Amino acid sequence: MLWLVATGFFMQTLDSTIVNTALPAMAASLGELPLRMQSVVIAYSLTMAVMIPVSGWLADKLGTRRVFFSAILVFTLGSLLCANAHSLTQLVVWRIVQGVGGAMLLPVGRLAVLRTFPAERYLPALSFVAIPGLIGPLIGPTLGGWLVKIASWHWIFLINVPVGIVGCIATFIFMHDSRNPDTPRFDVAGYLLLVVGMIAISVALDGRAELSLEHATVLVLLILSLACFVAYGLHAVRAPQPLFSLDLFRIHTFSVGLLGNLFARIGSGAMPYLIPLLLQVGLGYSAFEAGLMMLPVAAAGMSAKRLVTRLITRYGYRRMLVTNTVLVGLAMASFSLSSPNEPLWLRLVQLALFGCVNSMQFTAMNTLTLKDLGTGGASSGNSLFSLVQMLSMSLGVTVAGAMLTTFTGILPRATATHVLPAFHATFLCVGIITAGSSWIFAQLSPDIRGTAKKTDPSERA
Question: Start and end of every Major facilitator superfamily (MFS) profile domain (predicted)?
Fold first, then answer.
């Protein structure tokens, strides 16, 4: 069963990054511009955010085996449909289907492990499950570029089909079917308010860039999203069992960490989308070469994780996160200096430095957010945290795509065939947004230090 859950986690995390290096090839095949393909990435990550709150409840109500089987089946079917898409609209719709299945793979699989293994074996079992999930995003860009080179972009989806078929069969054989007879009633009203708010803000931010919405429509959508989030807050105060209790925000480290994750991850979510596009559309790299260039980011990120605990113990969370957030912003802004004449060694160093500080940022933010939840708020807080992570990734791509389109239209030196100035301006803005989010971490008490208690390893990626 561990191998089954690990494989499902690997499939889900792989598809969050494997598409990025294939976007220009997809655009050429579907007759679209490469800079208008962000909806392919947004559809998947936003659907994941929308489905995360309901996945655990479904597993409790219907049983882990039935829901996990359905998740693999829907994910595999969505992958097959994506590979057979003949237009951008079709591809976006099938990515939503794929995201519905992918969103349930990790939470339901993690729940199955929790209910199968005794407490003393839970952490080792979950660590085993988490490792393939951490590998997926690392090899995704390179694997995507390699598949485009030797075959076509369709194969980044088709490789999921045989794995999914085997996974469906294995689920019936190895997955224990457990459910919770005392499952509380699902907070439908709160869920709908959050879903409408998340979709409205994403469409509003992407409306001018890709959907060509009028300014008035964008403004209405922004007001709608704000109204939905405020309405959820009022609803959560009165509801006996809200989807996410507002009491979680009384935990200082959780509230600061959650808000910091939301805004700092906008830049971090934009970079896996922007860098492969810069390399291919702006600097003339092939898809495979762009994928290989992402390896220094992954390697430096894995190496840097060992430093975080020492830095937090010595300097505390506030000083470490404020300083590192500014460094991440500067690393992002440094890509605004990219040019075709930049030496290869310097570009590799630049990518490695970004991977290093970005990895430390993720680990520090995540441990800060989860460290003081305790047993009572762990489930609800962890679910809300996962939702915010996926939402910020979606918003990152949305913001990056909108800025690229805007700068291509307003900068005098930027055209559809010469987009490097638009990339430069976008990287600079993304860096400023990220560095500015350091103000959130400055609200922490300076004496908060030490490592976090043991939490789910899969949440530390």
Answer: 1-449
